[in-house]
Description:
Blueprint lengths: L1 H6 L6 H8 L11 H13 L4 H17 L3 H17 L5 H17 L3 H15 L13 H11 L6 H22 L11 H15 L5 H4 L7 H14 L6 H14 L7 H13 L5 H14 L5 H18 L7 H21 L9 H9 L13 H14 L15 H20 L7 H4 L2 H9 L6 H15 L28 H21 L7 H17 L3 H20 L5 H22 L2 H17 L5 H4 L8 H4 L9 H9 L5 H4 L10 H21 L2 H8 L3 H7 L24
Amino acid sequence: xxxxxxxxxxLRPRYKRLVDNIFPEDPxxxxxxxxxxxxxxxxxxxxxxxxxxxxxLSERLSRDVARxxxxxxxxxxxxxxxxxxxxxxxxxxxFVESFLTMVRKLLEADKPNLQILGTNSFVKFANIEEDTASxxxxxxxxxxxxSEMCHSSYEDPDIRTKIRMAGIRGLQGVVRKxxxxxxxxxxxxPQHMDKIVPSLLFNLQQDQIPxxxxxxxxxxxxxxxxxxxxxxxxxxVYGNIKNAVKPVLMHLDNHSLWEGxxxxxxxxxxxxxxxxxxxxxxxxxxxxxxxDANSKSSAxxxxxxxxxxxxxxxxxxxGSIGPTVLEVFNTLLKQLRLSVDYELGGGCSGSVPLxxxxxxxxxxxxxxxxxxxxxxxxxxxxxxxxxxKIPVPGMYPTLGSSNSGFEGSRMIQIMLLKSLLQVTVGFQxxxxxxxxxxxFLDPLLSFTLMEDAEIRLLVLEILISLIDRHENxxxxxxxxxxxxxxxxxxxxxxxxxxxxxxKKHSQRLYRHVYLACREENSEQQHFQSLFTLxxxxxxxxxxxxxxxxxxxxALALQDLAVTEEALPVFNRCAVHALSAAYLNxxxxxxxxxxxxxxxxxxxxLRQKEFPFLLPEGVFAEKLEKVEKVEKVExxxxxxxxxxxxxxxxxxxxxxxxxxxYIPQITDGVCVEEQERERRxxxxxxxxxxxxxxxxxxxxxxxxxxxxxLHVHLPAPLFLPVYEMKFPDxxxx
Length: 732
């Protein structure tokens, strides 16, 4: 009976007849479209038959594969694809099982064309959004098989490339189908990530192979791989980041890819730009942990990891910051300590030389650097953190090990000051007083008094970065200009916060500038940096009182060059040149004609007789006529009395101008306390002293104070304002 039914087409079930009719006699004719439309209509009308249609198509496909009738195999897969696209009913799950069975059959075949055909069908299926959930579907086989295809070693290079690309697209399809389906097996499990991620990295690495570098990515494999990897990482949530990143670290370890640096950096740039920004700190934490775990690896490996951390931190800073900033610095400080021990201990294993880790990657200043993306408040925190780690004699303990000694402390000081300079680049704040507290400035300025010329220069560069808020620093060159308008300096009116900052810290800044000029091992770059620093103070932070003090400081430097005979000839001439260039600058900024004229006259005389006392001469000539330095006097020097006279007529404090500047050795914090105590005594005197004593102290200005207080007294004796003597309490 069954045999008869099998032979008589009229007695066969309708769905089988409809399926058979879509296959032509000659497979080269392709799918019979009219009959395919009938089959599709039947499936939509009787959805309960879908599972049987799928099972029968699967049976035919298996038979055709076994008989090598590949034309009919392609027709069967095309029919399955069309049915999948058309049907979205509750019975679709049973049909999908048959479909996946057929795809699996094709992927298991040893023919590349069948593997690619099965992959294409799976990708189409992956893009379909199903209306019903599936509880028992598994994609483990597809993950394994597509990963194998990504590593294909087929002899023909063109076919090999096609198989690998099919594997990549297959993995992309698996990710799309499972990543957001809670009912599916968790694709983020290590057993799956350990297959998917290395397969993608293997293909991403293909353009690093020498014989492919010249060809480029002609076939698009690398581009496709990168898109797939970005899509995978972009779907990762908080709990999945670790499982996604760990295989990357293992792949770079196993294939020694840290040493090349460029591929490792590229991988983590893809990761950092692909994941959600609020999760980026998790990647940094894994990198830091991996760096610690590789404490016994080769120097080049650890250097590569540090470079990746540096690049990744730049990207992370544009997203979420959190505590990761300080964690990065803490880990790098550990490596710095090991590196110092390496340098001083003769290169013990497991330690990274300083020139390998820190010089090439951590302290360059790239465009859009890590520091450049930090907000101001966080930069201040980082600066305080780094400053707290720098060994300062008498203030902070050394960071190095007990075997490091003085040289170890010096190396750490230089490296951390370079790091601090990196953070200060582009630093801008409206309130210098809160952004640069005494706890930061005190230890920083203490380095300007050290004998080490490199350390002093770094500190000057840091101060310049902190004060320069209008990008003026590159405009200051140690030279004498007849017209400074060519510099196009950007200037704003000094704010109240700037005035308070200078009131508190100015004397400390002046003192360290003065003492820095007394150092015998200073070179041209030191004097250039000192000129830039003084110029920025004048442009960024100067009010009338500050201008007066800066002029006094410049004249004091001139006296230093004249009287300090122990200084080398070059230094004395360089200090003369610094003083001349700065007085030329500040005279033109004050726009007082008589002041400018006096400075110009002295400069002209020096150009004729003592050119080596000007910047253009001291840094160009060999200073053969040493005896002339000691004979500089009279009209070749800037006159403090003349300057005081010219500026006094323009409203500047002439009494203060004629007072020679003497650096205050007293600590600035103590100066502030003394100022507060002085103010307290003045207030107390006005509150408790008899009226006669107060009147005698105020003198002729008393009627004006009382008039201000709306006290009606007889008409006062009017005096010019410049002859009045005001009490300290009334002067700001």
